[in-house]
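User: Here's a structure from my thesis project, written as structure tokens. My advisor, Dr. K., wants to see whether a designed sequence matches the one we expressed. Can you design one independently, without my sequence as a hint?
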């Protein structure tokens, strides 16, 4: 823990005769005389009307501010951006999704550093603003708490956003009528909150709580519940408490904390995006973390939660039986979590979990350790002559552990989707979508539209998909993403040709194309990069971004 000066940063801005102009400006936004002697608590709000995930966060930010004020701090609410993956999915706009993570982290750092804020509550509700918030928190190392905006409630008939995407594929197959598609479109998203399965938002909320950076249960509350408003008030107060005790993120974000986050992500059957984002957060925190750590931790942690996209249940149903805390207690008791890690509660993880009750008898949302869905991680790290720097597969076991097929190559998501919906893909194909990596996209789009179309077309059990892009947490099937090096960097995926035999073996942790070294060298020697026209933000991102296996960050400490 650090030296204890709760006003370490704000006093530079507001104390003394020469700071009268600063105080004058702050009086205009509501400061009273007594407020200048209080620690200033920034509340980073990701409120926006562009997505249901964040449309309610302005109200939650006010609750967090009230909590900080009541505990003796002086709150200042500010906004940062968010973009909607679900809305931009399958369009050129999706290239900005991962880029937004860096913009969010940069913007929060900019405000907190410029204004001399002493502590921070950051509230996120969509896929990229959560890791973006955490990257900023880790960089600045000021007392902070992350708050999840909460999960959405299910639509009628147990529907959610993935129901809509898969209905599009069903419509192309002829199984879903125009009227049925319109019905699910109208009703599947009933109000505020993040997408309802164990997709990226709920995965990252759970991982951040397991890191120790959210208060207990923050990850498992509905967006519109009173419990979520109370969570925000407690978070505001907690930051003031952390300031008083001198507890900073660097006291919490240890290597062991990241192993806890990986373990919980695996047990929940979480999104492949957690790999990308935890690598990025660890880099911001100065913690060494690699793909091999995911493989190592995953080898001993089973998948226990039967949650969508590959399972049956939604996050709201996990919330109803107690959220992730009983699961974490189960993992802790089995020696699969590091109980000594400090959390933002000011206590150790083991102390936080000491009084947690088990799940109610008869529930089957989360299985016991002796009857897992899969005995080791569904997040399988693959290497081979197709991915020398690694790739990430999401294999729950329902898809099988091995796929061998002929390559069907596309240079963009749009090309692949057109072929899938137009019957241009057949059983036994390995769909290869390239030039969608961090540099080549630019932006590393998610392939939710193609994977949903595959399922909707009835090909989920007979087609595999590999890409140097990434996947939505809602994707399922035999899919491999983050193939590195990416095509734009001259990785082997750049020279795969239609008809090449590709073998994906989750047991052996391999992804290979049936080419010998000499043939691969000849193809790579003749390869020329495909350069896409892109806007200013994307061009800057492409120049700076690291490999997906390093977290696709733009300011790596490594």
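Assistant: Designed independently from the structure alone:
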């Amino acid at each position: 823990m650090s030296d204890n000066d709760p006003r370490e940063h704000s006093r530079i801005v507001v104390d003394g005769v020469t700071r009268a102009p600063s105080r004058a400006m702050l009086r205009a936004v509501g400061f009273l005389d007594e407020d200048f002697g209080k620690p200033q608590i920034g509340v980073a709000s990701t409120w926006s009307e562009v997505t249901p995930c964040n449309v309610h966060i302005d109200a939650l930010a006010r609750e967090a501010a009230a909590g900080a004020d009541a505990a003796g701090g002086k709150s200042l609410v500010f906004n940062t951006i968010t973009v909607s993956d679900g809305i931009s999915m399958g369009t050129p706009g999706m290239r900005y999704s991962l880029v937004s993570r860096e913009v969010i982290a940069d913007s929060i750092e900019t405000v907190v550093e410029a204004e001399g804020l002493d502590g921070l509550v950051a509230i996120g509700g969509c896929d990229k603003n959560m890791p973006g918030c955490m990257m900023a928190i880790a960089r600045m190392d000021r007392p902070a708490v992350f708050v999840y905006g909460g999960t959405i409630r299910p639509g009628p008939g147990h529907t959610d956003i993935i129901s809509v995407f898969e209905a599009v594929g069903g419509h192309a197959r002829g199984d879903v009528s125009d009227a049925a598609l319109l019905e699910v479109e109208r009703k599947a998203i009933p109000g505020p909150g993040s997408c309802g399965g164990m997709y990226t938002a709920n995965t990252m909320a759970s991982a951040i709580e397991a890191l120790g950076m959210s208060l207990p249960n923050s990850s498992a509350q509905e967006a519109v519940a009173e419990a979520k408003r109370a969570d925000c008030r407690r978070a505001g107060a907690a930051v003031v408490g952390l300031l008083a005790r001198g507890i900073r993120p660097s006291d919490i974000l240890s290597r062991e904390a990241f192993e806890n986050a990986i373990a919980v992500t695996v047990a929940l059957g979480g999104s492949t995006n957690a790999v990308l984002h935890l690598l990025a957060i660890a880099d911001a925190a100065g913690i060494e973390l690699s793909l091999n750590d995911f493989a190592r931790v995953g080898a001993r942690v089973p998948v226990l939660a039967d949650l969508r996209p590959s399972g049956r249940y939604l996050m709201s149903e996990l919330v109803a039986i107690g959220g992730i805390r009983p699961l974490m207690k189960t993992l802790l008791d089995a020696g699969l979590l590091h109980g000594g890690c400090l959390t933002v509660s000011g206590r150790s993880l083991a102390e936080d979990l000491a009084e947690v009750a088990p799940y109610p008898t008869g529930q089957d949302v989360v299985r016991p350790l002796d009857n897992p869905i899969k005995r080791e991680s569904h997040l399988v790290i693959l290497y081979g002559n197709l991915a020398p720097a690694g790739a990430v597969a999401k294999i729950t076991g329902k898809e099988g552990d091995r796929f061998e097929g002929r390559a069907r190559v596309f240079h963009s998501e749009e090309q692949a989707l057109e072929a899938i919906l137009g019957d241009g893909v057949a059983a036994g194909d390995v769909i290869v979508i390239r030039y969608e990596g961090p540099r080549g996209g630019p932006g590393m789009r998610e392939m939710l539209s193609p994977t949903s179309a595959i399922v909707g077309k009835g090909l989920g059990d007979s087609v595999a998909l590999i890409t140097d892009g990434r996947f939505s947490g809602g994707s399922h099937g035999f899919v491999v993403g983050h193939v590195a090096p990416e095509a734009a960097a001259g990785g082997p995926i750049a020279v795969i040709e239609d008809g090449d035999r590709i073998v994906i073996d989750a047991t052996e942790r391999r992804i290979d194309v049936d080419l010998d070294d000499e043939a691969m060298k000849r193809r790579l020697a003749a390869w020329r990069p495909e350069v896409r026209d892109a806007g200013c933000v994307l061009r800057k991102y492409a120049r700076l971004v690291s490999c997906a296996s390093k977290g696709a960050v733009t300011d790596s400490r490594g």
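When you compare it with your expressed construct, this may help: The chain has 21 helices and twelve strands.
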